[in-house]
Specification:
Blueprint lengths: L3 H12 L2 H34 L8 E6 L17 E2 L2 H8 L3 E10 L8 E3 L2 E3 L2 E5 L3 H4 L3 E5 L4 H6 L3 E5 H7 L10 E4 L2 E10 L7 H4 L2 E5 H7 L5 E2 L1 E6 L5 H15 L10 E5 H44 L1 H9 L4 H39 L16 H28 L2 H6 L2
Parallel strand pairs: 6-11, 8-10
Antiparallel strand pairs: 1-13, 1-14, 2-12, 3-6, 3-13, 4-5, 4-9, 7-10, 8-11, 9-10
Helix pairs in contact: 1-12, 2-10, 2-12, 3-9, 10-12, 10-13, 12-13
Length: 421
């Protein structure tokens, strides 16, 4: 069936009225083109939004204290309280499935300004009192030196890890900060490391202006005692922090004599729940892209089916002669189906090629954007599975488009076909 004469016949049939064939093929081209572009755009938007999370562990919740709204055990409503460092082992012991619990204290930012001094240079930066696990929950790139460790925690060492923005403002260009001292609210801390950080939610510049010091030395230097400002809690990979959140909050309520029904006393942000919503949104967007692209493609397939019906009508005499000379119904059906599949695949693959070229140009433009130009759109692309799906759609569509015309062709009796004008 796939000999040279068959291919010549296909080309002659489709080029007999090339303008009509071109317009018909455009429907399939446009359907595949829109499908690929929509999927790539959805992927680009997904990449951009997820890029905003940086490398932060998404199976994480953040927890802080708020005003108590219900009286309980003789304690009035409206009171303020603080987490204590003792809450950490309590939570870990009573809530299984947790990977990291990082208590944190903070100076600067929304808790007020702080002064950091080195020589004649001063600056206002966020200063965090942390445990070593925080770098696994909110990763940073250590560019020199090291991060804080448990030796620093146990010995209450006054050491600090500074961001590139802090280094730029407090140190001269080319000056080595490791081993030098900075003064945080009048207390000297030795710099043991520097870092750079990926931007999260567009705060790329501010993210470089942070200072990390050991939690214990922070508490001692700034008279925080056993207080904890807030906590970052990450669940194990086989657990969901969303499912564990209520148990964690219940432990805190028990430790601080808070009414079990007081839902306002403990503030929390469930990053995993938000991340899951975003994932669900992009799954829905992908479904919409497939739905819209398939509808447009279907209109093109209908157009191809119509053109093949016209072609069959125009070739009635030819079909009658072939049938009279002994051509089997399968031979006639196969020829019509081949013509339909050929037209569909050629137009569809052209759509894939053009859309891929446009995606390539968009990526080149994004790559050439100035550094630090945060965007919610990054690396639009389609994976190889989409190409295979498109090929399956094209072949199936070609068969469907040619099926009705093929059936019409073989149902025509040879004698009737020879009599037609």
């Amino acid at each position: 069936m796939l000999n040279r004469d068959s291919w010549n016949e296909i080309l002659e049939a489709l080029t007999a009225n090339w303008f009509r064939t071109l317009l018909t093929a455009f429907g399939v081209f446009w359907g595949i083109f829109i499908l690929v572009i929509l999927l790539a755009a959805g992927k680009g938007l997904e990449n951009g939004v997820k890029q905003g999370f940086g490398d932060i562990a998404t199976n994480t919740m953040f927890m802080w204290t708020q005003t108590v709204s219900k009286p309980y055990k003789g304690l009035p409503k409206g009171r303020r309280y603080d987490f204590k460092i003792g809450d950490v082992p309590s939570i870990r012991g009573e809530v299984p499935g947790l990977l990291y619990i990082s208590p944190r204290n903070q100076l600067g930012g929304f808790r007020g300004s702080n002064n950091v001094v080195r020589g004649l240079n001063t600056g206002a930066f966020n200063v965090y009192g942390d445990y070593p696990e925080i770098i696994k929950q909110d990763p940073i790139n250590i560019t020199s030196g090291r991060f804080i460790n448990y030796g620093d925690i146990d010995n209450k060492r006054k050491v600090a890890v500074i961001g590139s923005g802090v280094q730029k403002e407090l140190f001269s260009e080319g000056e080595e900060p490791i081993g030098e001292y900075i003064k945080i609210q009048g207390v000297n801390f030795m710099v043991i490391g520097t870092y750079s950080k990926k931007s999260n939610n567009g705060d790329g510049e501010e993210g470089q202006k942070e200072i990390y010091v050991p939690f214990t030395s922070f508490s001692q230097a700034f008279n925080y005692g056993e207080r904890v400002g807030w906590m970052a809690i990450t669940a194990q990979d086989d657990q969901s922090i969303t499912n564990l959140k209520d148990d964690i909050i219940e432990v805190v309520k028990t430790n601080h004599s808070i009414h079990p029904d007081d839902n306002r006393a403990v503030g929390s942000f469930d990053l995993f729940a938000e991340f899951s919503k975003i994932n669900g949104l992009f799954v829905a967007l992908k479904g919409v892209a497939y739905f819209v692209g398939t509808l447009i493609l279907l209109s093109g397939i209908i157009g191809i089916s119509n053109i093949m019906l016209i072609v069959v009508k125009e070739r009635t005499n030819e079909i009658g002669i072939r049938r009279a000379l002994g051509a089997s119904p399968w031979a006639v059906r196969g020829q019509i189906l081949l013509e339909s599949i050929f037209l569909t695949i050629i137009s569809g693959m052209t759509g894939i090629a053009v859309s891929t070229g446009i995606i390539f140009l968009i990526n080149k433009m994004l790559d050439g954007a100035p550094p630090g130009n945060d965007t919610m759109f990054a690396n639009p692309s389609v994976d190889l599975s989409v190409v295979f799906i498109a090929l399956i759609i094209l072949v199936t569509s070609g068969l469907l488009a040619g099926l009705i015309p093929a059936q019409v062709a073989i149902k025509t009796k040879p004698i009737d076909a020879l009599r037609s004008e």
